[in-house]
Every structure is written in C-alpha cells, then in structure tokens.
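Morning. Coffee machine broken again, so started the prediction first thing and wrote up yesterday's gels while waiting. Chain of 339 residues, entered below exactly as on the submission form.
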Amino acid sequence: MAARAGFVTGGTWCVDRNKLVEFWPAEDGIARILAEERRGGGSGCNFAIDVRKLDPAMRVATIGLVGDDEDGRFLLAEADAHGIGRERLLATAEAPTQYTEAYGSLKSGRRTHLYFQGTASLLTPEHFAGIERLDGRIFHLGLPGVHPGMDAAWGEAANGWVAVLRKARAAGFETSLELVSAGAERIAMLGRPCLPYLDYLIVNDVEIGGLAGEETVRAGRTDWDAVERAVRAVMGLGKMALVAAHFPAGAVAASGDGALVRVPSLAVPAEEIVAANGAGDAFAAGVLYAVHEGWSLAEALALGHAAAGASLRGLSTTGTVATWQECSALAARWGTRGL
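Came back before lunch.
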C-alpha cells in the first residue's frame, strides 16, 4: 500500500476584510485606513492556501461551512483558484458566511480582529462525516472558541473537537489542532481534552501558556524559558510527535523523542513589513510541510519562520506567502535575530 500523502484542513472558513490603519485608536478615537482588501481567512482556508503556495504540487482538501451568499461564493472561488479540493466545503442558507474585520496597525505591527459569527455557529462534528473517504496524511483542524457547536460536549466526548479528532485518527490521519487566543481559562478548557488525540500542536506563546497554566508573556515581552517550560508541560499531557510555540522573537519546539530546540525568528527589514495577520498560519504551514517532507525539527522551525516572514509583506493572511524555495531564499537574505 502506498504511503498516505497530502493535507486535509477542517474548520474555520471566513472572509477577511483586511484593513491597514495608521494605528489602533482608543475608544472614541479615530485613525485613518491606509489600505484594504478582501481575502479568505480562518484556519481551514489559510493553512490550505499556504501549503499550496509552499508546494503547488501538494494535494490539499478541506472541510468547512460557508453561507449560500456572495461571501460564500467568494470563498468557494478562492478554494478553486488555489487548487484545493472542496467537495466537503458546504454552503448553507441557514446563516450568512462568517467574516472578520481584520485591522493591522502600521505603527505597532500588531493585529486586531472583530468577527461576525454567521456560519461558524452552525458547524458541528456532523459536517465531518465522510472524512474517511478523503485522501491525505495530516488533518489540520481549528478553531476552538469560535464555533459554539464544536465547543460544546458531543456525546461522551468533552467537546466536538475531540469527537472530530477521534474520527480523523480512526480514519488513519495524523492530527493537528490550531487554537485562537481566547483567554487562558477558555484555551485550557477547550484545548486540553484534545491533546491526547493530537500528533502535532503548533500555537503561539499565549496559547501554549494557557494550555500549560504558565505565564509566558510579562509586560508585553515573551519569556523564552517560560515558553520552554510550557512546551514541555503540554508535551506531557499527550503523546504528540511535535509541540511548537511561536512568537515574534522566535519559536520553541519539542519532539516526541525528547529533543527540544529554540530557533530565532527572521530579521525582517522594517520596510518589508505590512501586517502580521496570518503569520501564525504561515508558520504552522511551513512547519507541517517540512514534517510531511521528513525534514529535521530545526529545519521545520526554520521553514516556519521563513513562511511567516514572507507573509508579513502583505495585508492579507496568505497573499505574499511563496514557494518554500522562495521563502527560504528570503530567510537566507534577511538572516535571523539573536537568541
């Protein structure tokens, strides 16, 4: 039997209404919009497009729910344009398509998201029926905290995410979960029950801290040692092959065989940076693409940083991600920050 290959994404598909503002204003304040564009967003969409951009020959399919409306048709067209198998990306008339007002601050480089739930409120494990009929090796799922039907208990499973991950595992997939920074208690409540059913977990510094009960960010600065402790603690809560946490200065990752590495992020020139929206998705896509191709742990983190760095050059989540060779060439030109 041939080895399984390729990716399937599942979960959030939304429209991102991306806006670049001079700065993020206080309440009752005002700031000028410098640029705007509409693109696909959400973990299911972003990861799928990023992987296809890293390697246009890679097979990628998806499972999700959009509205039977103009935004939904836009997302279906985005999937088609990037060669993503979308027979399980369904349209419904029961709710409008989920969308996000995604603001990037030119001054700080930070991002702020305001989202309309729409079809996200309807997604349940039932929409993942038939996953066993999809080809692929790695199943990437998200986002706990955004979909109430998935966040709730499902049968004897702690939540719908656990139910879907179990189904994917039973179908022969290696599994990956993406989180959203929804507050430490909520991250722990929704994420910890999923850990025994995961092969890979790639999250940011805040999310790994929430899962581990560790304060990883103090006074706006990420503590490398605290992130390492959190990564080790989370690895101990499951039997994962890889746990990684990324943040602006770098990333920490542990493998199931006990290896642990720290890799600094890229020294992206300030004039190249437009917005950080989607950098986390690009990082995860780079890391898991490298894992899929059999690269080392350090090489996987390096490609994650390269993909994330490439994504910083654009306003949207996926617009400036390139092939893995092009991303790696950018990384070589820019160099890395110090540890």
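Residues 7-334 form a domain with the UDP-N-acetylmuramoyl-L-alanine:D-glutamate ligase fold (CATH 3.40.1190.20). Going to sketch it on the whiteboard this afternoon.
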